[in-house]
Design brief:
It comes from Lactuca saligna. Belongs to the peptidase M10A family. Matrix metalloproteinases (MMPs) subfamily. This is Peptidase metallopeptidase domain-containing protein. It contains 8 helices and 10 strands. The protein has a 5-stranded mixed sheet, covered by helices on one side. Strand 4, helix 6 and strand 5 form a beta-alpha-beta unit. With about 325 residues, it is of the alpha/beta class. Among the domains are: about 70 residues, Muramoyl-pentapeptide Carboxypeptidase, domain 1 (Orthogonal Bundle); about 160 residues, Collagenase (Catalytic Domain). Bound molecules: zinc ion (ZN) (2 copies). One zinc ion binds next to loops.
């Protein structure tokens, strides 16, 4: 009985506690011993599906259906997916291609597979059946401005009474000041354009925004998948949770060497996830921070015009800050 209880405690402990994430100031400081572990990404087996199309039955298609289900492209009809390339999968592939600016053929051509393999944010592109990206725009054309940025369904946002937000770090991660500074910088990229302010708090329980690194199943139903694959996810207001995959190799100090291994730039991912914390969904604009994928070895931290327009439509502009030359004044 005692042993069972201990085992139970151990499993709870090991599933929820974070392995200490790996941080490195730059790519050349990653010890070679870590590199062999990061050659196989979570989705590499999708390479075998290149060229597949409607009517085929190929081992591995069920896993791809799970992928599309996870990101909202296949509804909740069945979780026991077959290896049949059926109509539902073809529609999913077409919508995916629309969202990622690819030819909407419904076939798994090379460029589509290449896009699918890229590391990405774990937040779905299609939420409750409505696409926040290109594939949903036809339906929203009847509304006002057609923009690329998007919000989560119901447009959740921080109310005017909560514009001065606090953030705190999962104490168990024992993050260093260098890592924390990456997030300070990432928050500043959004506060620059909006009336929102972000202040670090030492009280994790009461902070508006809670940041932590976790591995695998960490209790919110959105498991991480090891190296590459999904990198992070965050929840819309007012939940305020920002989770990052502790199995990634995170780079905290700029500049990537060319041909760098599977290391991810922490600030790039942090800026994107903060967009979700503030209510933004994914965008089909590739330059936008809110585009869902990012390749390893890429640093992308500057808000694009699309991001600025999105966040200002949601929370207004910082006094005296206009979006760009041609923006609507007083937005
Ligand atoms: Zn995202
Ligand atoms: Zn999570």
């Amino acid at each position: 009985m005692k042993i069972a209880a201990l085992l139970f405690l151990f499993s709870v402990f090991s599933s929820s506690i974070t392995a200490f994430p790996h941080f490195f100031p730059n790519v050349s400081s990653i010890p070679p011993s870590l590199l062999p572990n990061i050659t196989a990404g979570a989705w590499d087996s999708f390479n075998n599906l290149s060229g597949c199309h409607l009517g085929q039955k190929v081992p591995g298609i069920s896993k791809l259906k799970n992928y599309f289900h996870y990101f909202g492209y296949i509804g909740n009809i069945s979780k026991n997916f077959t290896d049949d390339y059926d109509d539902a999968l073809e529609t999913a592939v077409k919508n995916y291609q629309l969202n990622f600016n690819l030819n909407a053929t419904g076939e798994l051509d090379e460029s589509t597979v290449k896009q699918i393999l890229k590391p990405r944010c774990g937040v779905a592109d299609i939420v409750n059946g409505s696409s926040t990206m290109n594939s949903g725009k036809a339906a929203s054309m009847t509304g006002h401005t057609v923009a690329h940025y998007s919000f989560f369904p119901g447009t959740p946002r921080w109310p005017r009474s909560r514009r001065d937000l606090t953030y705190a770090f999962e104490p168990r991660n024992q993050l260093t000041d260098d890592v924390k500074r990456v997030f300070t910088n990432a928050f500043a990229r959004w506060s620059e354009w909006t009336p929102l302010t972000f202040t670090e708090s030492n009280n994790y329980n009461t902070a508006d925004l809670k940041i932590g690194f976790y591995g695998g199943n960490h209790g919110d139903g959105e498991d991480f998948d090891g190296v590459l694959g999904t990198l992070a996810h965050a929840f819309a207001p007012p939940r305020g949770l920002l989770h990052l995959d502790s199995d990634e190799t995170w780079i905290i100090d700029d500049v990537f060497a060319s041909g760098s291994p599977s290391a991810m730039d922490l600030e790039s991912v942090a800026v994107h996830e903060i967009g979700h914390l503030l209510g933004l969904g994914h965008s089909s604009v590739e330059e936008a921070i809110m585009f869902p994928t990012i390749s390893s070895g890429i640093r992308k931290v500057e808000l694009a015009r699309d991001d600025v327009e999105g966040i200002q439509a949601c929370h207004g502009a910082r006094r005296g800050v206009a979006v760009t030359k041609t923006s609507k004044a007083g937005l």
